[in-house]
Amino acid sequence: MTIELLWNHLASNPVLWLCLTLLAYQIGIWVYQKSGYLTLLSPFVIAVAILLAILFGTHTQYETFFAGAQFVHFLLGPATVALAVPLFDQRLRLAKLWAPLLIGVVVGCVVGVISTVLLGALLGASFESIMSMAPKSVTTPIAMGISEKMGGIPEFTAGIVVLTGIVGSLLATPIFKLCRIKKDYVKGFSLGVAAHGMGTSRAFQISDKAGAFSGLAMGLAGIITAFAAPMIAPPLLKLLGY
């Protein structure tokens, strides 16, 4: 009983969850390095697994956890802005490839939304669930805003976005090998469109060039999806009889 009371007292302190989040990620980095940089054991995967185990094991509500983790979440903004540095370094190459890059990100965003809606409808998901999953491939704050506007559940969207980033980062390497994709900027751009911030982090592990193109793709994907998803998802679901 004493231990339970002590835990309840500690759990109400946001500093605890901030420290546990940072510690989980550090453990993730250590495991990732010891594994020889095995993609399946990336820091994100390990950190999420550790935190989920703690939350489920202690029956802690997400709101309690986020009270401390929000300090890390706040840093997403400055981290995104910092992507301008590698983008500037690659400005000449970006200027030459602007047309195929723009076409690629538009097609990627549209296909991502349509495929999610069709798959959700095929599996019998509810309207709210499909609207929550439609913007899954863009960064969390934008995805939550899009989801709420379309009648989805922002909290559910946040979880789907994280899952998409993890899966995208894990599958990137085998897919690149299967498709014989060798150019770093193609790898990076693909990761940015499909797996947002986590994909960008994975791209920087490939090279600075891949990271720069991934950061650009992530930013463009967020803007395009904010317009495309509300224009595509609800009408498509209505056409399917929802």
Walk me through the structure:
This protein is an all-alpha fold and 242 residues long. It folds into two domains: 75 residues, no CATH class; 151 residues, no CATH class. It is 83% helix and 0% strand. The protein is built from 13 helices and no strands. α10 runs parallel beside α13 and α12 crosses α13. The protein starts with a helix and ends with a helix.
Give the CA-based shape: globular
> What ranges have pLDDT less than 50 throughout 5 or more consecutive residues?
none
Strand content: under 5%
Structural class: mainly alpha
Write the layout of secondary structure elements.
Elements: H1 2-11, H2 14-34, H3 43-58, H4 62-74, H5 76-82, H6 84-89, H7 91-96, H8 98-122, H9 127-133, H10 140-150, H11 154-178, H12 184-206, H13 208-239
Helix pairs in contact: 2-3, 2-4, 8-9, 8-13, 9-10, 10-11, 10-13, 11-12, 12-13
